[in-house]
């Protein structure tokens, strides 16, 4: 890894001194030394004197609990103190949590935002106090004060979701080549996208739609509802209930209450997939073998992995939260040692104010046959967890 020395703003140490004076957490004696003429980098602080704020969006989705736990564990193993907060999918709750992390003198923030445009003033305040900000999985928009972004390749996730739909429908092999005995179509499908306030949702959607385009253009696939605009198909806050409701409405408006054929549904996230499946099952069958349409997903949430294992959900995209958490920890350690973290993408993620240096990780598509190798043998889940559909 290439590391460059950087000097951090002295402002953060001024805050640290005032907090040290009143006993605030994370403000160590070294900061005082720095502010009284020592080396003004955070490199001088022992990890045990540093608290890192970790703001996760919600506990309603198991992936963010796993992310939060993995980041906390990694930082604690490196010797840091960690203040882990979950925002209950409520923007004011998350902004308050971040405000508090700053006033408590925490030295670095790792944030998976609820609304990627709602944190401008918090981040301005963080910058004034010399606090580095790492956007975790979701980019924070409209702010110059996002220092780094760790994520998966979000466009590729969308491509993988569309390819998984095509494979699930029997149109392509796993490697993307057309199947000789592919159904001629037209096959009816419907499209779902993620939360419009999450920067990732558009990347997933664009990757998927670019991949499906040739099949839509030549009529192999038909979106029978005609709803293909992002704004029309997006599900606010990635809500399972919102997805179930939209799918039920589509069945009523377009599929004769479930009597018309529907071959597949592009879903961007396992929670949304489960909402869609709940709406479809009473009309089409309990499993794909019974006639349930092919439904994609993302995150390899254990409840959906069980559904895949049971032949209910077709696929998901595995984003290994252990790897993402480890990457966030690597970046945090670099900043706190006064160094510049390594990016592997410095062109893609423009947040409206600047291009944020990013580290993108790889993803894995999961069908039933992949569960053992990718999720169980890798130690992500136990067989018992997959069988139960619940992480212990
Ligand atoms: C996105 C994330 C997805 C999924 C979704 C809903 O930001 O990239 O992996 O978790 O949120 O939580």
Task: Explain this structure.
The chain has helices at 11-21, 29-35, 62-77, 91-103, 120-128, 154-168, 199-217, 230-233, 240-254, 270-284, 302-309, 321-336, 371-376, 383-388, and strands at 4-5, 51-56, 81-86, 108-111, 132-136, 148-152, 187-191, 221-223, 264-266, 294-295, 316-318, 339-340, 358-361, 364-366. By secondary structure, the chain is α/β, with parallel strands linked by helices. The protein has 2 domains: 3-146 and 320-361, 3-Layer(aba) Sandwich (Rossmann fold); 154-318 and 384-388, 3-Layer(aba) Sandwich (Rossmann fold). Strands 3-2-4-5-6-13 form a 6-stranded parallel β-sheet, with helices on both faces. Helix 3 (62-77) links the parallel strand 2 (51-56) and strand 3. Helix 1 packs across helix 2. The longest helix has 19 residues, at 199-217. It starts with a strand and ends with a helix. 48% of the residues are buried. The model is unreliable at 1-43 (pLDDT under 50). Bound molecules: beta-D-galactopyranose (GAL). Residues 61, 63, 137-138, 194, 198, 200, 238, 269, 298-299, 319 line the site of beta-D-galactopyranose.
